[in-house]
Amino acid sequence: MEKTACDIFEIWEDYKTSLYLYILKRVEDQDVAKDILQEVLLKSYQYCSKGKTVLYLKSWLYKIAQNSIIDYLKKAGKRAPIDFDLPEQDERHSLVGEASEYIRVLLKLLPDEYAVPLNMSDLEDIDQKTIAEKLHLTLSNTKSRIQRARTKLKERFLECCAVAFDQNGEMISFDIKPYCKELQAEKNRLEKIF
């Protein structure tokens, strides 16, 4: 499992060169790239100095860099590229990938009348009409159950996790609250695997 301690100065040396090259490739100006790199360091330091932890630091740092580049390009009156590519990484090693592991656990805690249609829709990618037919429900009832399930799942996720979002609404970190036994157990299981 990637480092989780949020001591930015300890990990900065590991990532600053690759972050600089990532930024330079997108802004094509060494001085601007250095300025943006310093902004990434400052933003990450400000976040970490609040005593918070970050899962998957590399993904988090690159997301801050990406957002900083977009902010710079907007201020400079340039268009940000639509397909902003982050460095290659396995789904399991991204923040969203890890969060999805916990969401699967929370989904199992929902009543079947909500969990089953949501699982079919969002995880198995089955269209709602087919779900309605398989579960012998009306399409309207199926849509309603899926929507209620998403709401219940989101409530449970926020109840069990401390989540931080960036200015664009993207999740940048989350911690499992100590009293959420189901997710703590899943976290322990995942740590043994990695």
Jot down its keywords:
Arc Repressor Mutant, subunit A; Rna Polymerase Sigma Factor, Chain: A; 194 residues; 2 domains; 8 helices; mainly alpha
Describe this structure in words.
This protein is mainly alpha-helical and 194 residues long. It folds into two domains: 1-81, Rna Polymerase Sigma Factor, Chain: A; 90-194, Arc Repressor Mutant, subunit A (Orthogonal Bundle). Helix content is 66%, strand content 6%. It has eight helices and two strands. It has helices at 8-27, 30-48, 57-75, 95-109, 112-123, 128-135, 139-160, 181-193; strands spanning 161-165, 171-176. The protein has a two-stranded antiparallel ribbon with strand order 1-2. Helix 1 runs antiparallel to helix 2 (30-48), helix 1 (8-27) crosses helix 3 and helix 2 (30-48) crosses helix 3. The longest helix has 22 residues, at 139-160. It is globular. The relative contact order is 0.11.
Can you describe this structure in just a few lines?
The chain has 194 residues and is mostly helical. The chain is built from 8 helices and 2 strands; from the N terminus they run αααααααββα.
In terms of DSSP E residues, the strand content is 5-15%
The pLDDT mean sits at 79
Q: Give Rg in angstroms.
A: 20 Å
Q: How many strand elements? A: 2
Poorly predicted regions are: 88-94
Overall 3D form: globular
How does the SSE layout of this entry go?
Elements: H1 8-27, H2 30-48, H3 57-75, H4 95-109, H5 112-123, H6 128-135, H7 139-160, E1 161-165, E2 171-176, H8 181-193
Helix pairs in contact: 1-2, 1-3, 2-3, 4-8, 5-7, 6-7
